[in-house]
Amino acid sequence: MTTLDHHTKSARPVPNPQKSLITKLNMGTGLIVGIIFAYVTYKLVRGSNPDWEPTQDINNHNQALIASMLMWSVGFLVGIGAFIGPWRWMIGKDLTAEEQLYLAGDGQGIKRYFKYCTDHKVVGIQYLWGVIAMLAVGGTLAMMIRTNLAMPGAKLVTPSIYNSLVGLHGITMIVAMIVVATGPFGNYIMPIMIGARDMAFPRLNALSWWVLFTAIPVLCSAWFLGGIPTGWTAYAPLSVQAGPGMNAFLCTIIIFAVSTAVAGANITATVVGMRTKGMTWNRVPIFVIGATISVALAVPAFPTFMLSMIQTAMDRTFQTGFFDANAGGSGWLYAHLFWIMGHPEVYVILLPGVAALMEIVPVFVRRPLFSYTSAVVGFAGIAGLSVLVWAHHMYMSGWMPMLNGPFMVTTEMISVPTGLIFLVILGTMWNGRPWMKLPMLGVFAFLWNMLIGGITGLYLSDVPADNYLHGSMYVTAHFHYTLMGAALTGAVAGLAYWYPKMTGRMLNERAGYISFWLIQIGFNVLFLGMFIVGAEGQPRRVADYAQEYGTANMVSTIGAYSIGLGFIILLWAVVHSWRHGKIAPMNPWGAKTLEWTVPYPVPLENFDELPVITSDPYGYGKAAH
Length: 625
Fold this sequence. Notes:
The protein has 625 residues and is mostly helical.
């Protein structure tokens, strides 16, 4: 049976759903098989003793929980069909053309978003809603934290629950922010930007999302297992001694590290090997450069965090003593493994969002990107230096005081390539007349927020100043200005910019403006207040504080509620506009990159004929828009 595809104008087979097991598998079968795998594994590891209690053998209880959580992930992937392709290849019966087409989701409508689908555009939408869900959960936890801190002596939750709120909020938001831009835009937009028909490895692309998906319920289970009392850093030996909720934390990181490794390798291979004819490296859109450098930084950095979690799991289950000084281990080992990931992770989050903003500026100012080479050098310099600064998080630990000076220098040096990025954006805007649409507002917000985040970070890079500010609310405000004020602002601006291409609709403009101002005003009220109390000595990660910090904390909490309201309005705009928004023209912004040359819905293979590139994507004249 064949049909005529209206994109390729060629006859091709229509998948017959009766012919293959692959057509019967979806998210529902994945959940069923995953739960079965987890239950059976828990029973097998726990043993057959009907009188067994977790308190009787903590090691065995941890073994059962960790094994069942990891097998839940494997079982879900089996149930959704992630391994059918490799299995069929191994037995010499590779997927047929019909099955390959079915796997790509062709002609399946909304159902393809709940299946193991290899179309990079479907994966991009899956990442988008996954990120929205994680931000919603993390944001709700943040509102609970701020409500408890609204006034001294507040008892919304107990101190132990408060610690769990802080830990779950931190790791949920970190995971969400790592994929907030590279997940949706790196999958949906980037292959089209470079003129590719798909990602280099479509099955691995789908795998990266569904592996990440399996980590989400594992992390959520921590709440029902006693929470995460250690904060998102989960320092050993505290994490070794923590309750069963810590098993969910470490399994989440192990699963997530696999997802990022698969996604990072796939994005790198796609950009290196699948650029269309004529797209030399000096003609690659800057978002592609930023996203590629970001994942290239993540691929070697994240395995160290994964290794620390594996060692923590072994300490918890087999008493190996990696982080126990009495057994020849060291807590500093954990700190190094964590922060070798922890600081590069900041730039893994930051670079794609900044690159999205640098993609926006030339379009809305109608000028070429100022010094494309400087932008690339800035990204590369940030990535290179970010792996040489991790120990500035350990100034107060007492580890190798003689190295504090060198790490202080490398940390301060990272402001140089960051300054290059600022100059490129400002140079592009210089003497221009910006078109003040929602994406462009994000550029101005980024410049303000990142300037504050960068300058306050310089104080923390200095050993004497860090000696005073370390562990205070000042540090919390600083990294929120970097991660939320800069990276998340860039991702939201990118969503407003690429929303017409991803949905075929224009984002509700009025709701977008209202949400922007509520978020940005509330953000600055919240964290400027935290800078003040932090500089005055209020510690972070505590459920109560002295009376003298009460006024600033109440003001900060009001700012937090403004942010929450702003994001609720933005979510409404995203959902409502998806179905009822104004139909978008093919190129509403008049941009010159390739994603705006294809219609919506984007054809299965993106292009009828692969384009040939003859110039860079920023060839705008000097006339104002």
